[in-house]
Structure formats: C-alpha cells, structure tokens
Amino acid sequence: MRLDRYLVTLGIGSRTEVQKLIRSGVVTVDGNPVRDPGFACREPADLTLRGETLDTRLMRHVMLHKPAGLLTAARDKKQPTVMDLLPPVYAAIGCMPVGRLDKDTTGLLLLSCDGELNHRLLAPQRHVDKTYLAHVDGELTPAMADAFAAGLDLGDFVTQGAALTILEPHLAQLTIHEGKFHQVKRMFEHVGLTVTALHRSSFGPLTLPEDLPEGQWRELTAEETAAVYQSAQMEAKL
Q1: Sign of the C-alpha dihedral, residues 68, 73, 76, 80?
Q2: pLDDT bracket for residue 238 (50, 70, 90)
C-alpha cells in the first residue's frame, strides 16, 4: 500500500495533510525517513510519526459493553453512536458493529474490520447464539418457554426455536439464533409481555466480562478472535 494511503487509512489526516507530513521528513518506515508519498509499504508496516510508533494494524476486533442511549451505527448526524466511545482510528480503518443492539439495550457488542466475518456471524443458518437477559412487565410462564422453543410466527417471519429460561417471575434468559430488528421485544410482545430492560450477555463464543464496565471496550484476545472465526467457519485474521 502507498505510504500516503496507509496514513490516511489510519486516520492520521487527509491525503493532502499526510503527503505534507511525509515530504517534511517526519515519517519513518522501518526506521528510515521516507519523503516519497508513493513509497510502497508492507502490511502491517513499522511506521513512526515524529518519533512516535504508530499502531498500523488494519484488522482489529473489539468487544464493547454498550450502555443505553447510544445508537448502534457507524455515524448519525443527530444522535451519539457506539463509535463515539472508540478512538477515531477504529472508524478510519472500518471497524464496524456486527449487527445491532437497540438504543435502550445494553450489553455485549462486537465490532470488527472484517466484513465477511460480520456477514457470516449474522447469517441465521449459521446458528450463532445470542443470549439476553430480559426484564418484562408481566409474569413469565412455562407455556411461554414452550412457545419460544417451538418458534413464533411474528407475521413477517417465523422465529427459529429459542431457549427461554425463567430466572424470576419477571426476569428471563433468552438465547436466539437470528438477530432481526426488535426481534426479542417482538417475541415477548407476541406472548403478551413488554420488555422493560434488555441486556445481551453473550454473542457466539464471547461472554461479556464482569470487569468490563458499561461504556468501556477492549480488543479481543487472540483466543477470543480465533473462537469467533471458528464459529463463523473462517480462518482467523488477527
């Protein structure tokens, strides 16, 4: 990749800005100053800017503990999004949410630079589990658990069998395979209940760590990354 394009992709600046930086001699490649914006770089490259080493990885995977009140979107002109919680470089390299959590839903959100991984993890036929804790405004019953397991006809689609475990009269754990728009809330509405609070505790092989507070994030470990790719039946991209 051209050096100037690499720096733009990393969010260092516009093409004009990074070309000016390169020509001024403040960028090094493998320890050597490079003044040619068209210099061909390997990926990942060993780059510094004004003596500071740059993180040049273009493939990153992030686990975020989403708080309520944020849209799950790359950007929005009027409302804050989950991307506002991450340094700008993640948006610059194309690290995007894998699926969506509603604005008022909290919990585990995966973000990745790998579009194919995103697509595969969301494909219903791959049966990637998503587990939620749902507080509802009425009493849960065993008959509801049976109905969820059999699949619910929501009009525009029939849900796959889902595992509903009643934890308390108004609290349940629900594991589904799909992730359609407002699906969990619609499933409970179908049996006469309204979800008052919803939290995703796990996504595929990932479980939200107890030591990751709301609004905080971290990159996946190598082991977590490998497990996510395995669930998508892909070779891991670290």
Answers
A1: positive
A2: low
189 contacts: CB under 8 Å, gap ≥ 6 = none
Res. 189: pLDDT tops 80: yes
Phi, psi of 226 (to 5 degrees): -60, -40
Active site residue 102: yes
Residue ranges in 44-200 assigned as alpha helix (H): 88-92, 115-122, 142-150, 183-190
Catalytic pick among 46, 102, 104, 129: 102
Structure tokens at 229: 């790719």
Least confident of 77-91, 98-112, 118-132, 217-231: 118-132
Measure CA of the first residue to CA of the last residue in the chain; give whole Å: 19
Contacts of 76 (CB under 8 A, 6+ apart): none
Q: What number is the average pLDDT over the span 140-151?
A: 97
CA 213, chain centre distance (Å) = 16
Return the number of other C-beta atoms located less than 10 Å from residue 150's C-beta: 12
Average pLDDT over residues 199-215: 97
Partners of 27 in the β-ladder: 49
Q: Is 49 helix (H, G, I), strand (E, B) or coil?
A: strand
Two tokens, residue 139: 């009493």
Contact criterion met (CB below 8 Å) for 145 and 164? yes
